[in-house]
Amino acid sequence: YNTCDNKYGWMSVFFMIAYLFSFGIGMGGLPWTINAEIYPLRFRSLAVSFSTGSNWITNLIVSSTFLTISSSAVLTIYGAFFLYGSIAFVGFVWLYWALPETKGKSLEEIEELFRKLNDDDDFSLAHPEQTKNLM
Hints:
mainly alpha, 6 helices, elongated
């Protein structure tokens, strides 16, 4: 407690906790909610597990590359935040145009939003006996 000479050092801890608290009760659960809605029921568990795995792999990549990228020999800390912020902005723009509104829709209606024109309703990975006819 008495080792920090900056009298405003406590503010960084306070605002970090405030950010984590507000993110947790607000936008933090949004990706998981959307993930549970957009996949067809027959593929939902597999698709959510792939999404969760890719989320954690991406977290690992960002965590393990940040110190190298933020070094003065590569991009500096400003360049690292600019790089990650640019990637997040491109992702936001893509999601804005690619993700339809699902508010007030049933899971069946949401499934129809994501169905392609030539999707075959009879094929399902949940029923392996149907795949025998394909071989």
